[in-house]
């Protein structure tokens, strides 16, 4: 399934939101096994979504730049909308 840059960034935002909410819940319920499994599942979703994005559009952050060139500065920055 093809998603454009905006759709893939939105997907990452939704996954990041779910991860953050689960982390906040786990702060007050650290023994909740279901919540921990949910968190781990969404960690995997995040890893795959980031990989998918980077394959199509390049690094998400400067820490993700693994190329021989500094690709991170190419193409719109995450806060720039496509014209």
TrEMBL record:
InterPro entries: CotJB_dom, Spore_coat_assembly_CotJB. Residues 7-80 form the Protein CotJB domain. Pfam families: CotJB (PF12652). Keywords: Capsid protein, Virion. This is Spore coat protein CotJB. It comes from [Eubacterium] hominis.
């Amino acid at each position: 399934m093809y998603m454009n840059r905006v759709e893939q960034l939105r997907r990452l935002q939704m996954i990041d939101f779910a991860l953050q909410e689960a982390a906040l819940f786990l702060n007050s319920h650290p023994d909740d096994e279901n919540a921990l499994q949910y968190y781990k599942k969404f960690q995997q979703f995040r890893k795959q979504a980031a990989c998918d994005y980077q394959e199509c559009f390049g690094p998400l952050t400067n820490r993700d730049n693994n190329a021989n060139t500094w690709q991170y500065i190419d193409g719109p920055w995450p806060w720039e909308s496509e014209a």
